[in-house]
Design brief:
heterodimer, A: 121 residues, Rossmann fold, 5 helices, 19% strand, B: alpha+beta, Four Helix Bundle (Hemerythrin (Met), subunit A), 5 domains, six-stranded mixed beta sheet, five-stranded mixed beta sheet, 26 helices, 22 strands
Chain lengths: 121, 765
């Protein structure tokens, strides 16, 4: 069965890249444009793993991750943070919010797939 | 979708982000301190950097990175967005736009400019206040060069620690026969509760570890409590692993990259001393897989089998935990439902909260992106529908003179609906003028820099909507006018101060809707038109006679004449061989009008009035020499029936009509267009009083008025050829083609300039 990935990113460019990369790697991809939409989509999409950006309007990645972790059904789902911000402070905040791991941009399809493979069975 | 398409999307997105950036910076400049504004500005640059990184656009990434760093200081309140700071940022936004364009279309960027800004931005980020460029260059001569692309700095953090003795062979495939005596590591791994809470999984980590080499593993269960004390979600297991790998300690660490904060992890190199892991009695009674150098080559399968076994054991333990978990959950079933509901309402509250400060975004609403071609096809079809509906109405009216039948009433409804559909379809093409206005801000900054003038651009009504084509074609004339306004209109700061004005000049750009058209005003508070000089110049250029008696307004309008330029020295800004005549012509080509009002010492106001759409037109349908013509309604001031007493001969050919104590030349449209050789009798026809650009009023003689209607414009150039005096064509309700009169061309022709002389090409056609 195909693994289902929920991606949350406000950039149309990155959304498209994620879509192409994930579909090519045999994943099923569901997309949201910000944290609020991400939480809405989560309820119906039942993903196996989540990939989210940090800087987003309405609800940023930190808030989104906290929201997911508060949801009984998804509190143990792997969440990867996709962000250009590699500094320790940002990673720390993402981890405290409950992120499983991160993928440092610039966007690299191999790194992305590798990280997803690492956190999913 | 391939990478090129995504790249296209990226550049589209860049354009949006750049607009967002500019408008955010302008808001900050106006004193807006809403954190969301700063965030939006930051996000715009961040987003450009992210996409650019993915496409390897290093110049763009490098600049965006520096810019972003400085913006982050503003975001974290360590840098106050003062006007001086914003000046640097606005210029940086310009350079970012240049870099984006260069990345898309090739071409180069002013490297000196971008490097200066990189220095300024970096200085700001370090808390140094902006200084005049000259000073910066003197006092900070050895600034750091542009920081390395973000890509590099991102990587730097994960730079591998050199680990000398197994660096070689790092890239060799695992399946190769392995050299004897692979380095051996003892790893102890004890997850904490947080590891699981963040969605990490010990099994997966062990799986990844097993892929590095040959592994034996023991699970310690000594901290598992009795069942009634057991927290089903807590971490009780820990593992001791013995791993033989030549991939190095870094490879092992990187397996735990996501988990190392949430577990106790020690990694020790034991240099080929197998199995220093000691068995203690609390460990699961599993057989450690023997690590035997001699069997490595042949017996890999067994080793892996051992790992699988371990994994199965782990999985079994986990399945057990899970079932425990499930039963606990079931026991808590009722309260769980409550919690879920609570979560839902929280999510709802969250939504409501966040929608509050986002009123702007909410009102912008949901959008979809549609290919412009599709919209145009739709507009075209609706145009056909309008024509068809009109034809239908006409034939029904012709066949049913009573006009009260149900068909007739139905047709009226249809007409109403058609009109509404047409309006809605037109609205799809309507866009706010904001992007063009924003571009002007940049133009102003650049000219202000070049001329050494201090200028503030104030824009109003940026959200006024107008057809996209109009917007696209507006940028060029507007750019030229803005250049003129700053270069020629505004005085130097010294002169302004001497005249008792503030040193900073103001250019005001306004857009508004007025009676079905968009009116754009460009006002400066400069010196106004120097009428003596304009007049002298016009006399020198033989535009007017030396003794001509002109009103102030007429003198002001002379600047729209071809080849007219008053600037004493041609500056490199406006002296590009383009005069106001070109501006006027491009505005007219859009079906617009332009005029100027000027007050000496107080400045000038250019007013442009443009149609909201180029697809339809409200026109008056008239008959001239048995031909049906459409005159754009916007050009017509009034219509009148000439009386014999009001018409006066003037010279051999000319006739004037007196209207309320003033005389106005009477122009026979039929004669101008060569429909007939001799002038028609004015008393037998109707006069349309029209106003043309800068040329005052004319009374156009037509034979009869048929009525008023909205017509769909069909380009003559696209379908046939340019015809002098004719702007376009349309199809009327009865299916006939009618020509739309180019009022300005006809008025110009009546001034003695022949239509044909203007357009030599047309004669040949």
């Amino acid at each position: 069965m195909k693994k289902r990935v929920l991606t949350v990113d406000d950039s149309r460019t990155i959304r498209n890249m994620l879509l192409v990369t994930l579909n090519n790697a045999g994943f099923e991809t569901i997309q949201a444009e910000d944290g609020i939409e991400g939480l809405e989509v989560l309820e119906t999409s039942n993903p196996d793993v989540i990939v989210t950006d940090i800087n987003m309007p309405r609800l940023d990645g930190f808030g989104f991750i906290e929201g997911v972790r508060k949801n009984d059904k998804y509190r143990a789902i792997p969440i990867l943070v996709l962000t250009t911000e590699s500094d320790a402070e940002k990673k720390n905040r993402a981890r405290q919010a409950g992120a499983t791991g991160w993928i440092v941009k610039p966007f690299d399809p191999i790194k992305l797939i590798d990280a997803i493979e690492r956190v999913t069975a | 979708m391939d990478m090129n398409e995504i790249k296209e999307i990226f550049f589209q997105e860049c354009e949006e982000q750049l607009a967002e950036l500019e408008s955010g910076l302008m808001k900050l400049n106006d004193g807006d301190r809403d954190p969301e504004t700063v965030n939006a500005v930051f996000r715009a640059v961040h987003s450009i950097k992210g996409g650019a990184g993915a496409f390897g656009l290093d110049d763009l990434v490098a600049f965006a990175h520096v810019f972003e760093t400085t913006l982050d200081c503003v975001r974290s309140n360590t840098l106050e967005p003062s006007p001086d700071v914003l000046k640097v940022m606005l210029k940086s936004a310009d350079v970012l736009a240049d870099l984006t364009n260069a990345a898309r279309d090739g071409g180069t960027v002013d490297a000196a400019r971008s490097q200066t800004l990189v220095r300024e931005l970096a200085a700001l980020a370090k808390g140094e206040l902006p200084q005049p460029v000259a000073v910066v260059q003197e006092t900070v001569p050895v600034q750091e060069p542009a920081p390395a692309p973000a890509a590099a700095s991102d990587e730097a953090e994960f730079a591998p620690v050199p680990f000398s003795f197994d660096d070689f062979g790092l890239d060799e495939p695992e399946t190769q026969p392995e050299p004897v005596g692979k380095p051996q590591y003892d790893i102890s791994f004890a997850p904490r509760n947080e590891l699981y809470a963040k969605g990490n999984e010990a099994t997966l980590l062990l799986r990844d570890l097993s892929r590095l080499g040959d592994m034996s593993i023991r699970c310690s269960t000594d901290s598992v409590p009795l069942l009634d004390e057991l927290d089903p979600e807590a971490a009780y297991f820990s593992w001791k692993i013995s791993l033989a790998t030549d991939r190095g300690e870094d490879a092992i660490r990187s397996v735990f990259e996501f988990a190392e904060w949430d577990c106790d992890l020690t990694i020790e190199a034991t240099h080929g001393n197998p199995s220093t892991v000691t068995m203690d009695e609390n460990e699961l009674p599993m057989q450690p897989v023997p690590f035997d150098l001699s069997v490595l080559d042949e017996d890999e399968a067994e080793t892996i089998g051992g790992i699988v076994e371990q994994e199965e054991a782990i999985a079994a333990a986990e399945a057990h935990l899970e079932s425990l978990n499930a039963s606990v959950m079931a026991a808590q079933g009722v309260s769980n439902v409550v919690v879920l509901a609570d979560n839902d309402s929280r999510a709802e509250a969250l939504k409501n909260n966040s929608s509050q400060p986002q009123a702007m975004q909410a009102s912008v609403g949901q959008t979809i992106r549609v290919d412009l071609d599709r919209v145009d096809r739709l507009i075209n079809l609706v145009g056909e529908l309008v024509i068809n509906q009109a034809m239908l109405s006409q034939s029904v009216i012709e066949n049913d003179s009573h006009g009260v039948s149900a068909i007739n009433m139905g047709l009226e409804d249809l007409q109403q609906l058609t009109r509404e559909i047409q309006d809605s379809v037109m609205a799809i093409r309507a866009q706010p003028v904001k992007p063009v206005f924003q571009r002007m801000a940049r133009i102003v900054r650049e000219i202000a820099d070049t001329t050494g003038k201090s200028v503030r651009l104030v824009t109003e009504g940026e959200n006024t909507e107008v057809d996209k084509t109009v917007i696209d074609k507006l940028a060029e004339p507007l750019t030229h006018m803005i250049r003129n306004a700053v270069d020629h209109g505004l005085e130097t700061p010294e002169k302004r101060l001497a005249a008792g004005k503030s040193a900073e000049g103001t250019v005001r750009l306004t857009a508004k809707h007025r009676s079905g058209r968009i009116v754009i005003e460009l006002a400066d508070d400069g010196a106004g038109i120097n009428r003596d000089r304009v007049r002298q110049k016009a006399i020198d250029n033989d535009l007017i006679a030396a003794d001509a008696n002109l009103s102030d307004e007429e003198i002001d309008n002379l600047i729209f004449h071809a080849g007219f330029s008053t600037a004493e020295k041609v500056s490199d800004i406006s002296g590009r061989g383009v005069g106001m005549d070109v501006v006027k012509r491009s505005i007219q080509a859009l079906g617009g009008r332009i005029s100027i009002q000027s007050r000496p010492g107080q400045g000038s106001v250019f007013t442009m009035s443009l149609p909201l759409t180029l697809a339809v037109l409200d026109g008056m349908v008239v008959t001239v020499a048995n031909q049906t013509l459409v005159v754009p309604l916007t050009a017509i001031v009034e219509t009148l029936q000439p009386e014999a007493s009001a018409v006066h001969s003037f010279g051999a050919q000319q006739r004037l009509i007196s209207i309320r104590n003033s005389f106005c030349p009477l122009v026979d449209v039929g004669q101008i267009l060569d429909f007939r050789q001799t002038q028609a009798d004015p008393m037998a026809g109707v006069a349309l009083l029209v106003e043309s650009e800068g040329g005052g009023q004319r009374a156009l003689m037509v034979d009869a008025i048929q009525g008023q209607r909205q017509v769909v414009i069909k380009s003559l150039e696209a379908n046939y050829n340019h015809v002098p005096g004719i702007a376009a064509a349309t199809i009327l309700g009865d299916g006939r083609v009618a020509l739309i009169l180019d009022v300005d061309a006809v008025v110009a022709a009546s001034r003695g300039q022949s239509l044909r002389a203007d357009m030599p090409m047309a004669v040949a056609g």
